[in-house]
Design brief:
162 residues, mainly beta, 14% helix, Immunoglobulin-like
Length: 162
């Protein structure tokens, strides 16, 4: 009888150890394996009413992954761009373009870039989009450190209302 109980308990214990090992594995971004220095991230598109629902029917609709072009420029300020309105949509960026990559169908992208700072824009319709600025009016600055990947999440929300 003891042997009969020992075997199932041993199998259960081994199965529990296996599942713990798989839970402890670090999940890495699938693109991170290709690049060891640069910028890696994801682009999301948000549209429509993002205001809290007065009937408490849950949060606003989440963004959806956005396949588009991602541009990496030498650091740019608002004065170094051409934008017709106060919206985060730009006609041109007047600093040197360093790299361009495509985000995939899940919005993910990667760019191998040397250490330094970069202004990051994405293509949205016929314009460049960026909606992050610092106190010196630098546009969406991302810093790449030697031998490291910097993370960059981009939320394209020019068609959303808050």
């Amino acid at each position: 009888m003891k042997r009969f109980l020992f075997f199932p308990l041993l199998c259960w214990g081994l199965a529990a150890c296996q599942s713990t090992k798989s839970l402890n594995k670090k999940e890495t971004h699938p693109l991170a394996q290709k690049t060891t220095e640069g910028i890696i991230g994801q682009v999301w598109l948000v549209r429509g009413n993002q205001m809290p629902n007065p009937r408490n029917e849950g949060p606003a609709k989440p963004g959806q992954p956005y396949a588009t072009q991602v541009y990496f420029y030498e650091p740019a300020t608002l004065a170094q761009t051409n934008r017709p309105e106060f919206a985060p949509l730009f006609i041109s960026v007047n600093t040197r373009l360093v790299a361009t990559v495509e985000s995939d169908s899940t919005g993910r992208f990667q760019a191998s870039l040397p250490p330094g700072q970069y202004s990051v824009f994405v293509r949205h319709k016929d314009r460049f989009f960026a909606n992050q600025f610092d106190i010196r009016n630098n546009i969406h600055l991302v810093t790449v450190d030697a031998g490291k990947l910097s993370s960059c999440q981009i939320l394209v929300n020019s068609e959303a209302s808050y």
